[in-house]
Specification:
The structure is a homodimer. Chain A has 15 helices and 16 strands. Chain A is an alpha/beta fold. Chain A folds into 3 domains: about 70 residues, Winged helix-like DNA-binding domain superfamily/Winged helix DNA-binding domain (Arc Repressor Mutant, subunit A, Orthogonal Bundle), CATH 1.10.10.10; about 150 residues, Alpha-Beta Complex (Aspartate Aminotransferase, domain 1), CATH 3.90.1150; about 240 residues, 3-Layer(aba) Sandwich (Aspartate Aminotransferase, domain 2). In chain A, the strands form 4 sheets. Chain A has an 8-stranded mixed sheet, sandwiched between helices. A 4-stranded antiparallel sheet of chain A has the order 12-13-16-15. A two-stranded antiparallel ribbon of chain A has the order 1-2. In chain A, helix 6 crosses helix 12 and helix 7 crosses helix 11. The longest helix of chain A is centred in the C-terminal third of the chain and has 27 residues. The radius of gyration of chain A is 24 Å and the shape is globular. The termini of chain A are far apart. At the A-B interface, helix 5, helix 7, helix 8, helix 11 and helix 12 of A face helix 5, helix 7, helix 8, helix 11 and helix 12 of B.
């Protein structure tokens, strides 16, 4: 390979150019997530060689101001010094308020469907990020291809093309999965319920992360299950040492963990800890339900692995869906229930007979034609940018003692406010300004996390969003 | 109104023509369900006046050989003397065989999806009766009309257009229902589960009909509920006197009845008994879950009423779907849960978040454009004809001691065979001939009804079906 010959004079140039960029970033002219010129464009614009442009970017990258994203170019990244602190996860329950968590959840949900609300509470993709026309096309093609236009029941295990595609994509997380291992469901929640029902009886105890998605608590209650909350470390996911200790005294029947970008903390469990968890639970003969609904939403270079990929005994039941990646309204999910597959199949048969045929077939078609992969590349880039922009705006407009999570995937930021703040009260104040946020209380069974809020960055960052975050910041400031 | 003047000579004619038809019916040249010539065509063909043709048909109608169907013309009907006896419903459990009903259900289900099987076991409409092209059109229109192409979550209560249409159609069964009273679900089974969960805890007892749809038992087991079986009278539906007596000693928490064309008996509960049932249960403060999934499939002139139409206290929870009328694969159902609506809504939210958006929207569009009403008129006619033809074939080809139900709606015939017959054994023998039937054992918890089979008449009556029934008849004959 011929390296370009470097002109000595240009050797100073790259540093000057890097300096100018640095100043622009520091003074917020270039904002987090902004895309920089391509090497070629920069070289042309500044009359420098491509190699000089490259050296300037490497310099900025080394300093942590920008980052290269594969096949996308260079983007402004936060300098570590600009980051707010990470939120601390409380291990002990604070004195619970006379909190009716259920009531809070209902209230938060009701606001979600109101018109004219800035929805920072919804952890799913913005409609703007969905390739609607292509999905409609996939639906039309699927109806045309189907023998009876998708009017008849699916086979019990689910659409075979969809199952093949899911099995194919499992390759990305090191999965050795065949279509026979997969059962489709109506969204991830149904998959979780079938897996829970497959291995529990009412009265059993389930270990879950804390904080976690509030829907989980309701399902537990509805199934008559007890909950053991395991703290989550933002860098390592569920605290395995804590779990191991708890298992000595508490008869946990099954664990339900979101190992990739758990909601609301956004923690990603590292591979070695996934392996450790799978091993521990296999030894104790406790099944693991792995909710991998955010696993495809990674910002890094590769798809994070799953616990399922370390499972040699069929003890891990992976659940997922396209609700966070493609179309929540389609209600297309699945599980890979390992050795519990017969039980799950029989639950599916008795509870829903079969999943909806047209939506499954449309998603299968969308996968099969390669549209899914293309869409995922786009949406991951968009979300990464949005994530950085939201963090920057919160940093800029919230009080200095605010702490924000730094997720490497998913849809949400977990924001720790001054302990004086009651997040549900803040939610009510924000609703008066037509802004919907998720108060921390709804992420635990006893209304803990009362000074935390969850902010979704699913919506593209616009002036309207920025104004919303400015307003929110003011509400927090005015609180004390 | 000017009545036509009747020529005396023609007065003899009508009787002669009626006689000729009678002979043709007796000798099976005209078969049950065959359509007769229109009055105009008959008058033309025979060179008689329309009024003479009319008199001939009235004569045949009075004798019970033919029947007039509104807006459809005249059809060959069975003469009552040709009917086999009605099956007797056993009140007491026979000595149960070492029967694993679950295993039987699984086996029957597995055969349903096999290729090349004559499926007389499936109680749903034949794909041949579904207006697929029009439904596809409705889907395309619905996607186009939807703000985000149906990719987003529905509002929790369900598609508003669909709910309005369901409310409108409730008029046909004397219902005073608004769209606010309705919650959409993913098929009728999900509606039943939400209603059951809304009013029971594990360990509670539910009164159901016997025999009943086997799916019900599995759901009860899955929800940890106990079952009290109430006998069904083919002419009156669930035995209310029996229920009333049982309620004196057994703490029934809720009743779940299929009041219109219950599966497998096909009984239609008369209006006065529906009213009586609603009153009884309101007094005892026991909620009634009314599964009305077959209610639209009536062969008579008017839609049968529902218990819900007699309910003034919100004590009746009606459940239904389009799975038996339009598209089982769409999984579009609903419930009208009366005073339990908040509980049902919260169950829906926690279990499935929301029903699938595209299929609901497509069905809403299909209703709204009037296509549903047209389709229902067609499918009802087709099913009525099929019902009569199947009964005739069974009468012709099964042993003389066979008894067959005479449903006025629905999809199934309940056939009582000689007590020597083991229906599950017959099912296995039939499967060797690639014919799938539903053995009676799977319609009770303890494998009763072992000499009954359920035959679905959802498939249009063809030579293939007739041959299948001939083969079945032979298997029964060879059994003893």
């Amino acid at each position: 390979m011929n390296l370009p010959i470097i002109d000595i004079a240009e050797d100073f140039l790259y540093a000057r150019i890097a300096d100018r960029f640095e100043n622009q970033i520091a003074s917020n002219i270039l904002k987090t997530g902004d895309k920089l010129l391509s090497l070629r464009a920069l070289s042309k614009e500044q009359g420098i060689s491509v190699s000089t442009a490259y050296k300037a970017y490497v310099e900025l990258e080394n300093k942590g101001f920008i980052e290269a994203r594969p096949k996308s170019g260079y983007f402004v990244k936060f300098s570590p010094s600009q980051y707010p602190q990470l939120p601390v996860v409380s291990r002990k329950a604070k004195k619970a308020e006379p909190a009716d968590v259920d009531g809070m959840i209902t209230q938060v949900y009701q606001t979600m469907s109101k018109e004219g609300i800035l929805r920072l509470s919804l952890a799913s993709p913005s409609a703007k990020l969905i390739p609607e026309a292509k999905l409609n096309k996939a639906m039309a093609e699927a109806l045309r291809k189907s023998k009876h236009s998708c009017t008849q029941y699916e086979e019990i295990q689910g659409n075979p093309v969809l199952r093949k595609q899911i099995a194919k994509h499992a390759f990305n997380w090191n999965g050795q999965i065949s279509d026979h291992d997969i059962v489709t469901t109506q969204g991830c929640m149904e998959a979780l319920i079938f897996c829970l029902k497959a291995v529990t009886e009412p009265g059993d105890t389930v270990a879950i992360e804390s904080p976690t998605y509030f829907g989980i608590f309701n399902v537990m209650k509805s199934l008559g299950l007890k909950v053991l909350e395991i703290p989550v470390n933002p860098d390592e996911g569920a605290d395995i040492a804590y779990l191991e200790k708890a298992l000595e005294t508490i008869p946990v029947k099954v664990c339900l963990f979101v190992t990739n970008f758990c909601n609301p903390i956004g923690a990603l469990m590292p591979d070695h800890r996934k392996e450790q968890l799978v091993k521990l639970l296999a030894e104790k003969q406790i099944p693991l339900i792995e909710d991998d609904i955010y696993g495809e939403m990674y910002f890094g270079k590769t798809r994070p692995r799953t616990c399922k990929s370390f499972d040699h005994e069929g003890n891990v039941m992976l659940c997922s869906s396209v609700s966070k990646t493609l179309a929540p309204g389609y209600r297309v999910g699945w599980c890979i229930p390992g050795k519990y597959i017969d039980k799950v199949l029989s639950l599916k048969l008795m509870h829903t007979v079969s999943a909806a045929t047209p939506t499954q077939a449309a998603v299968a078609q969308f996968f099969e034609t390669g549209r899914y992969d293309l869409h995922m590349r786009n949406i991951r880039k968009a979300l990464h940018t949005q994530c950085l922009k939201y963090i920057q705006a919160i940093t800029a407009h919230f009080p200095a003692d605010t702490k924000v999570s730094r997720p490497n995937g998913g849809y949400v930021l977990w924001v720790e406010l001054n302990p004086i703040i009651n997040a549900f009260k803040l939610f009510e104040l924000a609703m008066e300004e037509n802004i919907s946020i998720a108060p921390g209380q709804i992420f635990s069974i006893d209304g803990r996390f009362s000074n935390y809020i969850r902010i979704s960055f699913g919506e593209p960052f616009t002036r309207e969003i920025e104004n919303g975050l400015i307003t929110l910041g003011k509400l927090v400031r005015n609180y004390y």
